[in-house]
Specification:
The protein is an all-alpha fold. The protein has 9 helices and no strands.
């Protein structure tokens, strides 16, 4: 699979400000708190003013999903470049990023991916580090991602029992999936 290049998102300065405030609201209070009214209140404007910059809440959310994909891909790219064990490094970076941004991670991964609203090539760019580590094997990459996502989402939602050795569970899963 060739390297995918993404086109930069072209947001106006005001749309960038709105997206930043939406991200802050999301990170502080979770996906349910992210409403156009709450966002407008935080910005000190009336909700209809937001629609000059984003056509609807889904567009704001798509921008946040794009940020998640971009940032988590950057974290994985850095891990892949600097670690002796790229698969373990990718898993560590992915987990660390998700746990540092649990609400954004959940917004981006617990709903259908708004592919039509994402910058072209972004999904492929986000998958590239894992695709390289898996030798281009899409099925293996999907299996590794499914394992990582499952572990992360269960950890975010507090589904592991107290005392569970998550480090060992990660190592066991990655060993089983190692290319």
């Amino acid at each position: 699979m060739p390297e995918a290049a993404t086109e930069p998102r072209r947001l106006t300065p005001r749309a960038t400000e709105i997206a930043a405030e939406a991200r802050t609201l999301l990170e502080q209070s979770g996906p349910d708190a992210l409403t156009m009214r709450a966002l407008a209140d935080r910005l000190g404007i009336k909700a209809p003013s937001l629609y000059k910059h984003f056509p609807d809440k889904q567009a704001v959310e798509a921008e946040l999903v794009a940020q998640m994909l971009t940032e988590s891909a950057e974290a994985c790219e850095e891990a892949e470049r600097t670690a002796p064990d790229p698969l373990a490094a990718l898993a560590d970076a992915y987990r660390a990023w998700a746990l540092a941004h649990p609400h954004l991670y959940c917004l981006a991964t617990e709903r259908p991916l708004p592919r039509h609203a994402l910058p072209e090539g972004l999904e492929e760019q986000a998958a590239m580090p894992l695709m390289r580590v898996c030798g281009g094997d899409e099925d293996l990459a999907r299996a590794v991602w499914a394992f990582a996502h499952g572990m992360v989402i269960l950890e975010i939602h507090g589904r592991f029992p107290d005392g569970a050795d998550l480090e060992r569970a990660w190592r066991t899963g990655l060993t089983a999936l190692r290319p």
